[in-house]
Design brief:
The structure holds two protein chains of two kinds. Chain A has helices spanning 3-10, 15-38, 45-58, 60-81, 88-114, 122-142, 144-165, 168-176, 180-193, 199-204, 206-210. By secondary structure, chain A is mostly helical. Chain A has a domain at 45-177. In chain A, helix 3 (45-58) crosses helix 4, helix 4 (60-81) crosses helix 5 and helix 4 (60-81) crosses helix 6 (122-142). Chain A is flat and about 60 Å long. By secondary structure, chain B is of the alpha+beta class. Chain B has three domains: 4-35 and 149-316, 2-Layer Sandwich (D-amino Acid Aminotransferase, Chain A, domain 1), CATH 3.30.470; 53-145, no CATH class; 331-461, Cathepsin D, subunit A, domain 1, CATH 2.40.70. Helices cover 30% and strands 29% of the residues of chain B. Chain B is globular. Chain B starts with a helix and ends with a strand. Classes of the chains: A mainly alpha, B alpha+beta. The interface between A and B is medium-sized, with 27 and 36 residues.
């Protein structure tokens, strides 16, 4: 282990805490890379990283089920209240309430049939609210189809960050070379300067590129 | 093998991506103006650039509460002031008929949905609360007069609903690229490409539509109407270019996409200006924006007219224009689109024939049915002898004063055919030829119209086309 890491651990920072704080710059760099270089569309960094942290706290399987539940319930609610032409604030409230109730049923079913009892942490609840609101807002602002695409891509990005943060190999590497986190910031600067086409745009423009 | 990285670099120099658009070209000084439709309208109106008429503005919930909805005309448009990509815009076509006196007023939207007054209030409530706003802050709702599509677009596009518009990208006073945007059923009457509208590239030099795209994929015809999308000549083309340049100068923006619609009575109107114009216009024009932007970035021009001339020169239909300049002739392919009276046909170019010919069906449609009947009554002998046929032609012409007949050489030898006078309009080339054509039975042939040498004097034929 690096001397600096030992010093930090000895001065009382919890090992887990230190790892997450060191890994966060990497995660942020990755989101930036995915957005600016690959061209993945997602909600803001806050929602995306919170998604990842929630996955750590409630486990990836339940997390993904919850993610998919939100988009499904949102779709169904949208279908039923479409013709009412409600204020959007109430639309979001209705969707959130429905998701909340469906989650209760889901947890009960999991317990009855699989014998799994899950203590859903506050993270998961905050995540539900945040994702629902973001999804609804994006659908209004950028159209339903775009909203759904951005939502799905946010989930994929959250999963990738989760896989990075919940990784004991990365922990050993980061504790050995904590300076990697500073390198991530330098890479951020480079990404911020790039004016090249995103990989997704190369796919989008493939028909002209051929000619 | 090609080096993928250098290929990537080359493509990046040619095509404009979001990164380059946002970091190199977006004009941060003028973005606050472009984001607000009201500000843009006020500035453009000061410069006498026509925009759609504003009927009412609702700025707050209080104003919404006190608004007298009986002031609304039968058809109108609601827009969020700081909306993005056409979201939140609803076009209302007319009032719904009331079944009884007590029933609330209701309006019908472009996608045939019925909005009662309380539905409309709810929509305005959402706008005021900033749900459609670019910065998610409180916004203003605008009522605008609905634009009635010009006859030209109605006839050429045959769309029933929605408002097509023309997007011109202006950079440092130069028109860089242009696109005709056509609403579809899917886009609910909006011309925005990301809501499902069709984009058609426009040749800057001639104002003629080129390649059409729907969701970034090339299409030939409009799936809603079955109409061909290429070869449409945009009316007022120079006015439109000039108006777009003047708008960008008025809002003091170096890089902007100006949207212009054609009103039945008022002609071209500036709908809005966009600081972040979409990038699919490059696909529709089969050309990269970055390359074009770079090529004018160091040029300076005095006025809009000289900017238009330079843009036409460097961005206009490439090879064809060059040959036109050398020979003064227009290059056409083996098949051209022509218009006779009001109908569009595909015509085959045949340099083997002298006279152009049209099928008897078309001739009948054009009102020459009587002449065809007279001609059919003639006794024409089964002969290939020129002298006999020539004498017959003279004899028939003497007997019937209003019929012209010609000897026509065809693959089967020589025959005689009636001639009629018509004018043929070459759509893509924008040339009308008044000429005399022969009528023949073309029922077994692929094309109803054949263009012969007599009418091809002003053209060069590119057999690869």
């Amino acid at each position: 282990m690096n001397e600096f890491t030992i010093f930090l651990l000895k001065s009382g920072i919890h090992q887990n805490m230190l790892f997450i704080l060191l890994a966060l710059p990497l995660a942020a760099m990755l989101v930036l890379f995915a957005k600016e270089i690959i061209g993945i569309k997602s909600f803001n960094l806050y929602t995306t990283s919170l998604g990842a942290i929630a996955l750590i706290s409630i486990g990836s399987i339940l997390g993904i089920i919850l993610f998919l539940l939100i988009i499904l319930v949102d779709y169904i609610v949208e279908y039923f209240i479409k013709d009412l032409k409600l204020h959007f604030a109430s639309k979001i409230a209705i969707t959130l309430s429905t998701i909340s109730l469906v989650t209760i049923i889901l947890l009960a079913l999991l317990h009855i049939y699989l014998g799994v009892s899950i203590n859903v942490s506050p993270f998961a609840i905050i995540l539900l609210i945040l994702l629902t609101e973001n999804l609804s807002f994006t659908k209004i602002n950028k159209g339903i189809k775009n909203g759904n695409i951005i939502y799905m891509e946010t989930i994929i990005l959250s999963l990738i960050i989760y896989l990075i943060l919940d990784n004991s190999f990365l922990e050993t590497v980061l504790f050995k070379y904590p300076y990697i986190s500073i390198v991530a910031i330098i890479i951020d600067v480079y990404i911020g300067k790039t004016t090249s086409l995103r990989l997704r745009e190369i796919y989008r423009f493939r028909n002209i590129i051929k000619e | 093998m090609k080096n993928p990285f250098s290929e990537y670099k080359k493509i990046s120099q040619n095509l404009l991506g979001i990164n380059a658009r946002n970091k190199l070209y977006i004009d941060n000084k003028s973005i606050n103006i472009s984001n607000s439709k009201i500000k843009v309208k006020n500035i453009l109106n000061l410069e006498k650039i026509p925009t759609p008429e504003t009927l009412f503005i609702i700025k707050s919930l209080e104003e919404l509460e006190n608004f007298d909805f009986s002031l609304l005309p039968k058809s109108f448009v609601i827009k969020p002031n700081k909306g993005l990509g056409g979201e939140g815009i609803i076009i209302f076509y007319g009032k719904k008929k009331k079944r009884n006196e007590r029933e609330e007023d209701a309006f019908i939207s472009a996608n045939k949905q019925i909005y009662s007054l309380s539905d409309i209030k709810s929509h305005i409530f959402n706008i005021l609360n900033g749900y459609y706003s670019i910065n998610k802050k409180n916004d203003i709702a605008i009522f605008e007069k609905r634009i009635i599509n010009s006859e030209f677009l109605k006839q050429n596009l045959k769309i029933k609903e929605g408002l097509p518009d023309i997007r011109i990208i202006i950079y440092k006073k130069f028109p860089i690229m242009a696109e005709l945007r056509i609403p579809t059923i899917e886009s609910k009457g909006k011309a925005n490409l990301h809501s499902g509208g069709i984009g058609v590239g426009i040749d800057i030099a001639r104002g003629i539509s080129t390649n059409a795209i729907s969701k970034d994929e090339y299409i030939e015809i409009n799936p809603d109407t079955g109409e061909r999308l290429s070869g449409i000549k945009i009316p007022y083309w120079n006015n439109i270019l000039e108006m777009a340049i003047k708008s960008s100068i008025a809002i003091n923006s170096s890089f902007t996409g100006v949207d212009i619609a054609l009103d039945k009575e008022k002609g071209p109107l500036v709908m809005e200006v966009n600081a972040r114009p979409g990038l699919a216009i490059q696909i529709a024009n089969k050309s990269g924006l970055k390359e074009r932007l770079e090529s004018v970035s160091k040029l300076k021009v005095k006025n809009a007219k000289s900017a238009i001339n330079i843009s036409k020169e460097i961005f206009g239909g490439e090879i064809d224009e060059e040959i036109e300049e050398i020979t003064g002739k227009i290059v056409i392919g083996r098949v051209v689109k022509v218009k006779i009276q009001d109908t569009v046909y595909s015509a085959k170019i045949d340099t083997g024939a002298y006279f152009s010919s049209i099928s008897d069906n078309i001739a009948k449609d054009l009102g020459f049915g009587e002449k065809i009947e007279i001609f059919k009554n003639f006794q024409i002998p089964e002969t290939k002898d020129i002298n006999t046929l020539y004498n017959l032609k003279n004899k028939l012409e003497k007997e019937n004063h209003d019929i012209n007949i010609s000897l026509v050489k065809s693959a089967n030898g020589i025959t005689i055919r009636p001639l009629i006078d018509i004018s043929i309009y070459f759509i893509e080339e924008d040339i009308t030829i008044d000429t005399r054509v022969s009528i023949s039975d073309r029922s077994n042939l692929l094309y109803d119209i054949l263009i012969g040498r007599k009418d091809l004097k002003n053209f060069l034929i590119d057999i690869t086309k």
